[in-house]
């Protein structure tokens, strides 16, 4: 169901229509047509809609209309709306959309509260100009709500709140923000409207709906289904998205990837890895080997640089963004031509979310998944579980072997060698956490081919490899300690870490499984010492008692022999009792 903006009831204000015209949004998407009228009529809304369906405008437009039609205009320090998102990238994106509308409604102020920004600068901005609309991540908002600082009291400012928006609510809960959400809800007024938007309605989301919304209207907007494909599978992802897969073994994958990137170097691509360590390693490797391609990287452990990198990639006409699933949900990056999944995602839902970074709101796009021969049944699993049909792309022939170049990077830089080892170890550990363990089985991993594909010089020692025979791998005969660090500051840092007191090393060892036996022995020793001390004290008490009895016996003997009178006996006996008490 698509319709024009002028058919909405209640009617939109002219300032909103002007912004829509400037942004060239001539028609509503289904989720916008369903949600906007309800929010304008002061209903709570819980909407489930597929990725790329236009959810942002579905809450930005009614938010502005509510504030425009308030009986009493918002004062400088009053907060009229809060939009909560799980990631800072999504918050930045929403803030940018909001800024386009506020050009036509300059009476409203806004602020972006996310990690990576200076908290003091946020507080100074709140104090000087206030904020009628907040776009925030939960952690930063909780921090500011729980304290009154330098004349800024958010807990009092939110009493005028008109609308709370929970965007990507399912991921807010997946990322462990449940406690933060409960804290935020406790500060907000009951007489507010709430809009909850998510890609999936999990049990946790339903609990949040019951706790945070008042008699909400629940909306489910599905992607329009296309005709059945030749094999009878109905595609669930947008019809403008083409999904592909390539079969290649672990020691072939990097060469195939480099060949693919060179073939598409004028396009914009996003590439997903399963771990932060793999992102760090392969982004540096590709940047060094394919020098003509601009390569950026983002993962969840980056704190200060994420916002800058995200904004830089959005503005690039071509290039590669290498990332983890921190970029799989919600973010809208213009003109992404390909999404590459170098590592299969941990869940079937994550597969669809990754693919959803391209072919957004009617645009065309492509997605490619790399699989090993023994993992080809994942294609059928995705077709059944997510209704996504994948077409096979044959691997390229006569590709350049880039693995010697990959190894050379580690031979000339110890830091690169260490990154490769961390990437390898983290991949092996994450591999066992797949939702589809029947398909992605550790026993099917060829560790030799995998280490070759990672360009390792030697295979590291790790519990998963204990007792295994490694074939298909040729180690390099080199003393790792002889490899220099290219960056001298890294070498200095390693020396400082090595010089740390042994106490810290022991503390680190406690986290290892084998150290539990040492801890058990130590506890047993302490219990034995404690028991011996108790017995010693008991023995001392017994000896004291014997001394007292012996003294009493001598006193009785003196009394019977007439050496002391009855009065003297009573005085001494009673006196001894008083002393003992």
Structural account:
With 581 residues, this protein is of the alpha/beta class. It is 46% helix and 12% strand. The chain folds into three domains: 3-221, Rossmann fold (3-Layer(aba) Sandwich), CATH 3.40.50; 241-477, P-loop containing nucleotide triphosphate hydrolases (Rossmann fold, 3-Layer(aba) Sandwich); 531-580. The protein is built from 22 helices and 16 strands. β14, α14 (348-355) and β15 form a beta-alpha-beta unit. α12 (276-289) packs across α17 and α16 packs across α17. The radius of gyration is 34 Å and the shape is extended. 38% of the residues are buried. Mean pLDDT is 85; it is low at 225-234, 504-514 and 577-581.
């Amino acid at each position: 169901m698509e319709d024009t903006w002028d058919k909405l009831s209640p009617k939109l204000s002219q300032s909103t229509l002007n912004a829509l015209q400037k942004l060239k949004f001539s028609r509503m998407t289904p989720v916008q047509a369903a949600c906007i009228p309800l929010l304008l009529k002061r209903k709570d809304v819980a909407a489930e809609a597929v990725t790329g369906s236009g959810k942002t405008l579905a809450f930005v437009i009614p938010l502005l209309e509510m504030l425009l039609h308030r009986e009493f205009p918002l004062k400088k320090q009053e907060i009229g709306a809060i939009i909560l998102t799980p990631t800072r990238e999504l918050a930045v994106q929403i803030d940018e959309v909001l800024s386009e509308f506020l050009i036509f409604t300059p009476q409203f102020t806004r602020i972006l509260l996310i990690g990576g920004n200076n908290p003091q600068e946020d507080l100074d901005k709140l104090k000087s100009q206030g904020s009628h609309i907040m776009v925030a991540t939960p952690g930063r908002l909780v921090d500011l709500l729980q304290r009154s600082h330098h004349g800024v009291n958010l807990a009092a400012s939110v009493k005028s709140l008109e609308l709370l928006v929970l965007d990507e609510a399912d991921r807010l809960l997946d990322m462990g923000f449940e406690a933060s959400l409960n804290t935020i809800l406790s500060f907000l007024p009951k007489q507010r409207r709430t809009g909850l938007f998510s890609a999936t309605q999990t049990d946790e989301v339903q609990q949040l709906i019951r706790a945070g919304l008042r008699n909400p209207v629940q909306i489910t907007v599905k992607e329009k289904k296309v005709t059945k494909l030749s094999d009878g599978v109905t595609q669930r992802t947008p019809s403008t998205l083409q999904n592909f897969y390539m079969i290649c073994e672990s020691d072939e994958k990097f060469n195939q990837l480099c060949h693919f990137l060179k073939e598409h170097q004028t396009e914009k691509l996003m590439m997903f890895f399963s771990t932060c360590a793999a992102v760090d390693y392969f982004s540096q490797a590709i940047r060094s080997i394919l020098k003509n391609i601009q390569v950026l990287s983002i993962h969840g452990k980056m704190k200060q640089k994420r916002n800058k990198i995200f904004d830089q990639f959005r503005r690039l006409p071509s290039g590669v963004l290498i990332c983890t699933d921190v970029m799989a949900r919600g973010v809208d990056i213009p003109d992404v031509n390909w999404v590459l999944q170098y590592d299969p995602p941990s869940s079937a839902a994550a597969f669809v979310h990754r693919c959803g970074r391209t072919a957004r709101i009617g645009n065309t796009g492509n997605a490619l998944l790399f699989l090993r021969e023994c993992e080809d049944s994942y294609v059928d699993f995705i077709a059944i579980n997510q209704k996504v049909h994948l077409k096979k792309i044959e691997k390229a022939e006569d590709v350049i072997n880039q693995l010697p170049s990959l190894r050379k990077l580690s031979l000339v830089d110890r830091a690169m060698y260490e990154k490769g080892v961390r990437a390898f170890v983290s991949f092996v550990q994450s591999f066992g956490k797949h939702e589809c363990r029947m398909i992605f089985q550790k026993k099917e991993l060829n560790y030799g081919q995998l280490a070759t594909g990672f360009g390792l010089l030697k295979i590291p020692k790790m519990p998963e490899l204990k007792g295994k025979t490694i074939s298909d791998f040729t180690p390099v005969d080199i003393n790792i300690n002889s490899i220099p660090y290219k960056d001298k500051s890294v070498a200095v840092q390693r020396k400082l870490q090595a010089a740390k007191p042994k106490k810290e090393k022991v503390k680190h060892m406690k986290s290892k499984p084998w150290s539990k036996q040492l801890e058990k022995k130590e506890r047993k020793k302490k219990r034995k010492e404690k028991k011996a001390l108790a017995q010693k004290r008991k023995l001392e008490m017994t000896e004291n008692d014997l001394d007292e009895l012996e003294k009493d016996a001598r006193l009785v003997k003196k009394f019977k022999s007439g050496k002391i009178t009855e009065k003297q006996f009573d005085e001494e006996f009673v006196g001894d009792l008083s002393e003992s008490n």
